[in-house]
Amino acid sequence: MARNKYPEQTLEQILSVSARLFTDKGYEKTSVQDIIEALGMSKGAIYHHFKSKEEILDAVMNRQFSYTAQMMNVLIQNTQAANAREKLISILENVMADQDAHSLDRVLSTQIKNPQFVVTGMKEGVNKDASIIAAILLEGKVDGSITTDYPTECAEVLILLVNIWINPVLFERSLSETVNRLKFLQYMMKVLGVDIVSDQLIQRITERHSDIDAYRQDGQ
């Protein structure tokens, strides 16, 4: 058997095609055979990299998490603002508005009641996204735009609440209930000395969840 000279390109192709199929057909309705046929590869080429559809989803998720983290790092380097607080507000709004950063949100929403998925998402959020936010909050402590004594803890709470508690799919909430929780989050963070949840951010999160809900309704 000829050895694949470009395994990284093959892996990227598998992930890209799988992500597209998961989005178009839905994760549950996409089979490994669908992925094989779309790729035009042999079954052996797929199973050389992944043992199951679940492993493919995990890899697709990790690629998405990495993209978001890289995007935030680029924004941190290039965003100009009067202080750290305004810089972080701009970064959060831009991340939420970026289509590529959320291209798999609808797919991932179908797994939100999977305990392993939820735990993995919580760990990724705390270990990666929260640490990036915490670093900017520490800058805000220095320039006076952030007044909390617990920047790391506030960053972690923000990520956990946005990703889990506010998620309407997990708790089967209405749009108005989700908006109320976002407003509470805004108030809570402000009281804690981390006034970074803007009205624009709330609007963009709400629009994102509305899109996910419409996708779920269409799939039912």
Automatic annotation (TrEMBL):
The entry's DNA-binding region: 31-50
Keyword terms, alphabetized: DNA-binding
InterPro entries: Homeodomain-like_sf, HTH-type_Tx_Regulator, HTH_TetR
One of the Pfam families matching this protein, by short name: TetR_N
GO MF terms, alphabetically ordered: DNA binding
Gene3D superfamilies reported in the protein's UniProt record: Tetracycline Repressor, domain 2
Residue ranges annotated for the HTH tetR-type domain, each copy included: 8-68
Protein name (Swiss-Prot/TrEMBL): TetR family transcriptional regulator
Organism listed in the record: Paenibacillus glacialis
Species classification: Bacteria, Bacillati, Bacillota, Bacilli, Bacillales
